[in-house]
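A reminder from the course coordinator: this example appears on the midterm review sheet, so study it carefully.

Given structure:
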């Protein structure tokens, strides 16, 4: 068992538990075990991702050689509508048992990778990174964060402790941005950086005075972003956030902005279309 399989196995076990097939042992026993040839049909242009989860689903069912080269050959690749990926043979019982779980995971990841790549293609021309957020589907964060990377984006944080991010709720609770920053400085995590969510120029100047390296300009207009970017120290990175979508992205591609975070990468990616089909092997 390789490290990828170890990492995925717990999640995949949960997905099968959710499907609750062991409740009907008669059904499982009666499923035919004849071999079927399996194929993926790509029914819309997309960035294909999530194949480790797709393949891992059938590895969990004991089919360790199924789709042996698909990750190396197709993961993260742009595929046109009409493409067909041959996967090999499976017993019908296992193809049917794993089909929906495997395809749900593959399609969810490919939705996100394809959508992320549309932002990345625009932002790359300005050397601006596209970041996700923690607005992920419970139980699917690993898949969704992975999919953002496969689409060319970057992960902001996998969890709260990857970076101390000072947000409105912190400022309100601790009595201001400075007090909230001090709370995190006293955490004793020497290498953990702090990012301050900024809502006005006064907070921006306070971030500079406190030598905050990472600043998020939240819900700023493009015009206000342009003004503050002129004032940033060389050591500071500026992230822009707040409801930015494909239609408004161009106006935020401003020289001096380092990154743009987009929650919709994971919660609002439009669906792509993939089918998993099988027929009797000859």
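Designed residues:
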């Amino acid at each position: 068992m390789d490290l990828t399989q170890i990492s995925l196995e717990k999640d995949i076990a949960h997905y099968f538990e959710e499907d609750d097939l062991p409740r009907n042992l008669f059904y499982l026993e009666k499923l035919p075990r004849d071999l079927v040839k399996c194929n993926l049909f790509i029914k819309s242009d997309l960035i294909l991702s999530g194949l480790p989860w797709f393949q891992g689903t059938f590895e969990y069912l004991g089919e360790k050689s199924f789709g042996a080269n698909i990750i190396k050959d197709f993961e993260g690749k742009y595929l046109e509508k009409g493409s067909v990926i041959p996967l090999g043979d499976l017993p019908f019982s296992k193809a049917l048992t794993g089909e929906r779980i495997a395809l749900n995971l593959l399609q969810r990841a490919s939705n996100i990778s394809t959508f992320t790549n549309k932002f990345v293609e625009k932002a790359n021309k300005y050397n601006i990174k596209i970041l996700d957020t923690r607005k992920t589907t419970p139980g699917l964060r690993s898949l969704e964060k992975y999919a953002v990377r496969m689409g060319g984006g970057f992960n902001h944080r996998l969890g709260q402790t990857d970076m101390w991010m000072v947000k409105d709720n912190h400022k309100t609770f601790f009595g201001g941005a400075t007090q909230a920053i001090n709370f995190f400085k006293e955490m004793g995590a020497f290498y953990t950086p702090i990012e301050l969510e900024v809502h006005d120029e006064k907070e921006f100047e306070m971030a500079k005075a406190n030598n905050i390296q990472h600043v998020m300009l939240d819900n700023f207009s493009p015009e206000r972003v342009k003004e503050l970017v002129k004032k940033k120290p060389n050591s500071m990175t500026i992230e822009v956030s707040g409801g930015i979508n494909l239609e408004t992205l161009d106006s935020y591609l401003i020289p001096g902005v380092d990154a743009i975070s987009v929650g919709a990468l994971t919660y609002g990616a439009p669906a792509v279309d993939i089918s998993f089909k099988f027929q009797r092997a000859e």
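The longest helix spans residues 92-123. Residues 3-119+270-280 form a domain with the Aldehyde Oxidoreductase; domain 3 fold (CATH 3.90.1170.20).
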